[in-house]
Amino acid sequence: LPLAMALETKTKSVVSELEYTDDNVNIGVKEFLRQLNEGLETSGTSMSQIPTYVTAVPNGTEKGLYLAVDLGGTNLRVCSVRLNGDNTFNLTYSKAPVPKSLMVADTAKELFAFIAEHIKAFIKEHHYDHYESHIRRRETMSTPEGYRDEHIFRLGFTFSFPVQQVGINKGYLIRWTKGFDIADAVGKDVCALLQVEIDALRLPVKVAALVNDTVGTLMARSYTSPGKAGALLGGIFGTGTNGAYIEKLDKIKKPLEGDYDKTTGEMVLNTEWGSFDNQLNVLPNTSYDIQLDKESVNPGIQMFEKRVSGMFLGEILRLILVDILQDKSVALFRDENSNQNDWKSTTTIGTESGIFKKWGLDSSIMSVAALDSTPDLGTLRQELESQLEVYSPSLEDAQAFKAIADAVGRRAARLSAVAIGAVVLQSGNLTDAAIDSNEPIDIGVDGSLVEHYPNFRTMIHEALKAIDGIGEKGAERIRIGIAKDGSGVGAALIALVAASME
Ligand code: ADP
């Protein structure tokens, strides 16, 4: 079967194009460190290294009831968090997909009103006593100011887009990412935009803290597993990717404008590593990466994110599949009994399949591919039928799909190791004689990709071992743990810090 042979050859060549070797990892780490340090010197660099004015991580004894809202990208989450003060918490939450129409609009009002409505519904459902005694009364008043604020919920607003933060609850949107595009909101204080809509509904809620999800993840990891040193890094691998870590104040050379506690000698920085290497000095750049970037809403930026995060992995895979489908000499998703030359009429893919639509292939099917290691790839083939309208996919079809999907996922994990490894080296924790050489270096992560993609963390660890200055021994000390609901708990913790400063 020459066509099937051709598919195997083509698959191998794509897989090798996607290979990201140990050497590549090391070159990546060096450049990451260079750009990380550049961001400490001045603003306007590729990685923004945004100061958060959070100068310490929690130790697990914090207490109280807080609200948290998380606008991550794909979903809006509203939750309440009860911190019990013993490293544990109780979390109640609701989740709703963000309508596409609100992500790309002329004004931001609809998006923030949507969030406020969800906060109201949440309080009504889960804190009815609070709703009855306060919200009802407040709703009947002519102005929100007339109401005594002693029962006001403090809310931590996790807003995971690049923001120029100028205080603990004030920050101006720098730019949208992850497919959002609402020009009207750029340059505005996102906390104020939300507070206006909350007040319009007369809710007894104060937006107390602006939280980046990475910072929340770092805080949550520190609260739930306080080692001697707390966690070093919080990383997100979901719709997008980003990380926040603790940096020594004396290394931050650019001016810090807001007020902050100087006694700890440290500050959490939001790296915005999604835009690591926008200049493409070291990032892999296949024809598929180039095409994806060209057709995105923000060409030339978030170049690291476009190779790593959930929003983009499916699309890279889709572009590769479309490229192969257009090659007449290769039999992918074809009706073998048909002799026509036009691939569109011989293909076994339904016309409504996501394979033909931009963003039509969700990264989650890559998890199905990675999980299925049976000889006949039955689960994957079923999923190709149900999710992507590929009718009766052959074993060869599924094998090609799996090999390419695995290669895209593996490259993403190894690129993630570049970011994590570089931050570990930057901290000096591996070489610092003052730190017990057995002490774990704790890293909290969150996001569907790192949580659900099989072996994502194992592949990261493999690559960490190959990094000069880390090696097998260093990698053993690096503990990467899921900070489940990290952004919710983290937001509550930062709202608590903010409330204590009011
Ligand atoms: P957000 O980052 O918006 O808060 P998530 O962490 O849930 O939300 O990430 C959603 C992203 O993760 C989407 O891009 C989705 O395609 C991707 N995703 C969801 N489930 C999986 C999975 N099982 N494997 C790989 N990617 C996934």
Tag the structure with descriptive keywords:
alpha/beta, Nucleotidyltransferase, domain 5, binds adenosine-5'-diphosphate
Q: Care to give the gist of this entry?
A:
By secondary structure, the protein is α/β, with parallel strands linked by helices. The chain is built from 18 helices and 13 strands. The strands form three sheets. The chain has a six-stranded mixed β-sheet with strand order 1-11-10-9-12-13, sandwiched between helices. Strands 4-3-2-5-8 form a five-stranded mixed β-sheet.
Question: Explain this structure to me?
Answer:
The chain has helices at 2-17, 22-41, 100-103, 109-126, 128-139, 190-200, 213-224, 287-294, 305-308, 310-325, 343-346, 364-371, 378-388, 395-427, 448-452, 456-465, 471-477, 486-501; strands spanning 50-51, 63-71, 75-84, 89-97, 153-159, 163-167, 170-173, 205-211, 233-237, 241-248, 266-270, 441-446, 478-482. The chain is α/β, with parallel strands linked by helices. The chain has a domain at 58-225 and 485-501: ATPase, nucleotide binding domain (Nucleotidyltransferase, domain 5, 2-Layer Sandwich), CATH 3.30.420.40. The strands form three sheets. It has a six-stranded mixed beta sheet with strand order 1-11-10-9-12-13, sandwiched between helices. Strands 4-3-2-5-8 form a five-stranded mixed beta sheet. Residues 72-75, 238-239, 310-311, 314, 362-364, 366-367, 447-449, 452-453 line the site of adenosine-5'-diphosphate (ADP).
